[in-house]
Amino acid sequence: MTAPVASIPAGTAPEIPVLIITRKIADHSARPAAEQIALTAERRLFLKRRWRAAAEDGTEFGFDLESRLHDGCVFHQTPGADYVIRQEHELVYTVRPRTPEEAALIGWKIGNLHMPVEITAGEIRAAHDPAVRQLLEREGWPFAESTVMFNPLRVTAHAS
Q: To 10 degrees, what angle do helices 130-139 and 100-112 make?
């Protein structure tokens, strides 16, 4: 004989528990890729202390962080898998300065727009924003749009 199944009224399904994460467990997973479960987040979430998201397997997490997470770090583990945070790639403008002087000028002018910028070997990446595009076109600097993991320089307060 089977036990009767209690019906749950519509709209009153029990909530799935949310796991609260306060810190990373490891900088990188040592498990093979098949044993890693990704949670992909946009760059701006990495700057926040409190946020909520779901991993690719549907597991819900609430983040109440002591310090920032970074792409590739392990934030939760089960006996069978590591949960790894992945930064979402985003559209940026990429400029390849021809000289160090041009690189300094491009960085300075984009900085005057107060836009995020990333300096890499041989190129400057800037936020995909109409003001940046207008500047690049006005100055005649060749640029391209690319979708990459964007890690702009951190903003710091002026020292006194």
A: 140
| Ordered domains of the chain (ranges, CATH) | 19-87 (2.60.260.20), 90-148 (3.30.70.790)
Using a pLDDT cut of 90, give the percent of the chain over it: 80
Q: Read out DSSP for 27-74?
A: SS--S-GGGEEEEEE-GGGGG-SEEEEE-TT--EEEEE-SS---TT-E
**144: how many CB neighbours lie within 10 A of its CB?**
10
Q: Where do we find the tokens 């006005």?
A: 138
Cβ(22)–Cβ(3) below 8 Å? no
Q: pTM of the prediction?
A: 0.77
Q: Which residues, other chains included, contact 59 with Cβ-Cβ below 8 Å and sequence gap of 6+?
A: 19, 37, 83
